[in-house]
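Hi D.,

Good news: the full-assembly prediction came through. Inputs first.
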Amino acid sequence: MGMTIAEKIFSNHCGREVRAGELVVTEVDFMMGQDGTSPLAIKAFRELGGERVLDPSRVALVIDHSAPSPLEGVSNLHTLMRSFAAEHGIGIFDIGCGVCHCLLPEQGLVAPGDIVIGADSHTTTYGAVNAFSTGVGSTDLAAAMLTGRLWFKVPHTLRLELRGTLPIGVYSKDVALYLAGRITADGATYMAVEYGGELITSLSVEARFTISNMAVEMGAKAGLMEADAKTLEWVSGRVTRPFNPAAPDRGADYAEVMEFALDGLPPQVAEPHCVDSVKPVEELEGIPVQEAVIGTCTNGRLEDLEVAARILSGRRVSPEVRLIVAPASRRVLMQGMEKGIVQRLIEAGAVFVAPGCGPCVGTHNGVPSDGERVISTANRNFKGRMGNANAFIYLASPATVAASAVAGKITDPRRML
Amino acid sequence: MEEGMVLRGKAHVFGDDVNTDYIISGKYKFKTLDMDELACHCMEDLDPDFNQRVRPGDFIVAGGNFGCGSSREQAPLVIKHAGVSAVLARSFARIFFRNAINKGLPVVECDTSQIVDGDELEINLGAGKVTDLTRGTEMDIIPLPVVMMEIIREGGLIDYLKKHGGFRL
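Then the structure:
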């Protein structure tokens, strides 16, 4: 039987053939913690009696979730991260650098064929560049910082063959939402999802990150894609160390293969309060929104800001709506300025906050009030997610969010393109 | 936790897809490492009175996909600090499951569909059985991978690693 991408990556790391279901201990090529999880990892590292981080060059700490700090408690935890990073010679991305899941690939820290862990559930994002990357908790991160290694169960793989090409006004976010709706919030639990087919090939690497980012919303451990010519070109200017991409064998042993023809896919929207409660935009059109958010590790990249600017150029954000934009990294913000995207968004009425997670996690930057409806490019719409359990969050593509911000209600972006 | 350890307590029943934001909202969890303080907000958005009703040793009982969402380890920690001695669910989200075991919170995968809120339960981890004493029914626990059993036996990942110096398979 042939092997899946996940089996290949684990086999390459173990130096022997390993198969789905096996328990293995392997080297971790890169590891990351953010400001919601690193403080507990530092505490666990000390409880472990850790004196030095085994290989600081394989670790990054990112202050992105509550950045800049809105509270003294958070400030103290940020300071703990800064001093731990300085003590151990770990690279730290301080406030304003951006969201961890945009930064790590952008800075060339993750490579095809890698095993990567992050103390953040959306670590599945780097699967788009062929890394087996998965979210873990703080204690696992502490163990990996100390030993360089971690135990894994090699996952079974759900292969998704995505056919067709996306119509105008429909984006990779719509694909990610559609798949979450079809597979459901726990349909891929304990499994790696492997995305393939010509639809994936047709997407830019930036657009692919959005899909792998949301693999965890189906319960998946990883959201893997093959490294094709686009991937290799994208990483070639960034990754400086050698790497070993993994392609699935023909006839790989998949737990299941599902095929989706997405030629006529309409824009998709997830309703409150479940990511898998997904409908075509036309079924929800007309619902008023008071806040619109463009950004996050799902959709805060340059292409996302670009499509929003295209819709907002020559238009105004509705006076009933607050449009908040959080670029996913400083580089995205600067490139957006160079291209005039930032100016166009601000002219249209957008409010920019620091590169980082923005209002997605409910700590700052736009907590909605009771009863308000928010349309966001984020990946989660759980009750209370944005800091108020009495608010309602809808998830959509940057185009749908921008169009809805203009109209003051959920709107099909295809009419504004 | 000893192998063969028996836990007894009352069931607090929740539904499917109880996510980590419900277990401990992001608005609290970023500001402190004091888990007793955070534990006051455990399950708050789903059941504002949970913190008043839960007694030491009680169980959280849920449907499918318990703990989905964030990787925050605060989620199993606040459950533990709220006094809950184990979580029973039909299935768990994988990061939560792993975190719970790493922090020494027993997580029990079993058929929870017949358990009613307030039922008295007995969990025998060694024997792999859950007994609903109120109803007189018995459920099998889905066994854990061997490495997880060993981590649980040591009381969590920190004690496991201190003892063994690394991971053993």
